[in-house]
Structure formats: structure tokens, C-alpha cells
Amino acid sequence: RAKALGRGCTEIYQNAEHLEARAQFRLETDLRHAVWRRELTLNYQPLIDLKTGRPHSFEALARWHHPTRGFVSPVEFIPVAESTGLIVELGRWALDEACRTLAQWRSDGVAPDDLRVAVNVSALQFARDDLVAVVLNALERYDLPGRCLELEITESAIAEHPQKAVDVLNQLKAQDVIIAMDDFGTGYSSLGALQQLPIDILKIDRSFIAGMLELEESHKLVCTVLSLASHLGKATVAEGIERFDQAVALRDLGCTLGQGYAFSRPVDNAHAAEFLRRTAAQAIAF
Ligand code: C2E
Ligand code: MG
Ligand code: MG
Ligand code: MG
Q1: 142 contacts 102 by C-beta, under 8 angstroms
Q2: DSSP symbol at 270
Q3: How many helices (H) and strands (E) are present in the chain, helices listed first?
Q4: Residues at CB less than 6 angstroms from ligand 1
Q5: How far apart are the CA of 182 and the centre of ligand 4, in A?
Q6: Interface pTM, i.e. ipTM
Q7: Which residue ranges does the record assign to the EAL domain (predicted)?
């Protein structure tokens, strides 16, 4: 009996594993079609200048509306896109779409001349030889200056390809493109790399912002990163600001920009334009 039970358990287990593998496979094949079926969109979340209370830039964040599963989080589909290589196509689309949107806002007169859009770039895109060409292509197509585009790269993407990093980032800088290091504090970066690479902005990961007013450790870490950035002459972004008391504390500590639900969730193109109109009339007070 014990033996029979044992076999049953193994079967159930194998079955669950099988189902999960199938679900994963479905997600992959569905994602393959998502771009041209127009199931992917970009949402935009403002980064607020903490001194003036005005939007400084918008981060473009991919959204997938699956025909039957509904909304699928990027936390779920970006890793699938990365492991299958689909991120290359998805990333090219995101760059193009973000530039198209910014150009539209500019021609509609809602975007100030220096407003930027920030696009996430994954390690795999970074490792390829065509990233610079793809970026220049998007800028040219929509007649945008390089300074209006920011690329967000994680610490780990840079650490995985240190040689490539120097080369690619320098080429992008030559076109005035702004470089931000995303999720700073969660990976490993050598201080040497930070100093040598043309990185303009450090984005402090939201896991540190969440507890910065309650946890001594988080507070210390935030202060340390802000002071490091200021010594290196880099701007700073605090991600995941959910409350205005955090925004006030960060401003007092000299953090340059703030991003988070306290100011706005990521919203679609039209709502982002509306946010621009509203904040042009009146800055956010906090
Ligand atoms: P990320 O680049 O670090 O983006 C910030 C994430 O924090 C976004 O999650 C955003 O919605 C979320 N967030 C912003 N403010 C708050 C807040 O106040 N509280 C909380 N709890 N969360 C906040 P999202 O949109 O789910 O994206 C998750 C990750 O997926 C991104 O993290 C990025 O790594 C990746 N991703 C999204 N779109 C793209 C893309 O087009 N290309 C690539 N390569 N990665 C992308
Ligand atoms: Mg990002
Ligand atoms: Mg981030
Ligand atoms: Mg993050």
C-alpha cells in the first residue's frame, strides 16, 4: 500500500511539473505573438523633481493584456522574454513606442522641451552589437535629440558584460543619451566601475525606500547611496515613494528625483499627457 501511495504521489508530482512546463510553454508562444497582435502597451510613470514638484521624465513600463489571462505582470513575462531571447524584439518595440509617444507629446505641446522618456534595457540587449544602432534609429525616426532619451540598465547587466559596458555606454553618451543604473543597491557594482562608466543617474531600489523612515538599516543605506552619488557627481532617483513623508525626507537628504505611487502610478499615454498638463499648471506640493 505504501508503495502504491508512493507511486501515486510521484505521478501527481510529475503531473504538476508537466502542467507547469506546459503553462510556461504557452506563455512563451503567446508572448511571441503579443507584439504584432498589439497586446503589448507601454505605461508611463513620472519622475518628479523633488525641488520643484514638477515632472522631469517618464519611465516607460511594458504592459501585456493577454486575450484570455487578462493582465500579465512584467515581473512574470519579462524573465520569459529574457530567457527566450524575445526581449530583443520586445525591447526594440519598447524603444520605438516610447520615442513615438514622446514625439507626439512634444508636437501636441504638452511636453516641455527637456522632458525625457526612460526605457529599460535588459542584459541581453546590452550584450548584442546592435543596441547603439537600434537606439539611434528610434531617435532619428521621431526626430528626437539624444538628451530626451534615458536608458535604464541594471547593475547586473553591466557586471555581466563589463567590457561591452564601457564601449556601448560611451557610444551612447556621444549621442547625449542619458544612462541610469536601475535597482541600485540590489546587485554588485564596483566603485571603480561606477566612477569609470558614464552613468548619469543612480536609481535607488524601492526595497530601501519602503522602510527608510522605519528601519535604521534602510535609512543608513539610502543616506550612504545619496552621499556616494553626490561625491561622484551623479543624480539620484528614489523609486517606490508611496508616501509624501518619504518624499520630504528624500528631498531634505538631497535626492534629485522621486518616483512612486505617491505622485502617480504608471498610467497610459493619454493619462500621462493629462498629468503633464495638470502639473504644468500647478506643481505637486508636498
Ligand atoms: P523597474 O524598472 O525597477 O520599474 C519600477 C517598478 O516599480 C515598476 O514595476 C513600477 O510599476 C513599480 N513601482 C513604481 N512605483 C511604485 C510604488 O510606489 N510602489 C510599488 N510597490 N511599486 C512601484 P512594473 O511595471 O511591474 O515592472 C517591473 C519590472 O519589469 C521593471 O522594474 C523592469 O525591470 C521590468 N520591465 C518593465 N517593462 C520593461 C521593458 O520594457 N523592458 C525591460 N527590459 N524590462 C521591463
Ligand atoms: Mg526601470
Ligand atoms: Mg527600477
Ligand atoms: Mg526595480
Answers
A1: yes
A2: H
A3: 12, 9
A4: 45, 61-62, 73-75, 78, 87, 91, 94, 120, 122, 152, 182-183, 206, 239-242, 259-261, 266
A5: 7
A6: 0.98
A7: 24-280
